């Protein structure tokens, strides 16, 4: 896996993934940014949410659950000192579908957290306390 980061101006950067996708990162105005893109630490949080969501969706589909939507809401706390690393992260999954079994959703969330999500494993190994919960929205 590869990535390239190109400085644009002030504290704005363009990151390009090895697969050819680009995005703008920027700092807050208090650090000289123009607020034209997410902060790098926000991208780490989004990456964790994407990794975990991917796992939950694929596990539920393999279990033949009729999942129609997964929304993952993340809340993180950071250390007050530099480096301001994440100290805690909570993932709240809102899983929507038809005739979803609670046991299958619980298993999917747990498998992601404990076995499959590389981002979660990496952050947890670095001392981040990661918790999760879920709610199920049954469609008629």
Automatic annotation (TrEMBL):
Query: What InterPro entries does the entry give?
Result: KH_dom-like_a/b (IPR015946), OsmC/Ohr_fam (IPR003718), OsmC/Ohrsf (IPR036102)
The cross-references to Pfam families, in alphabetical order and at most eight, read: OsmC
Kindly provide the name given to this protein in its UniProt entry. Putative redox protein
Q: Which organism is it from?
A: Fluviicoccus keumensis
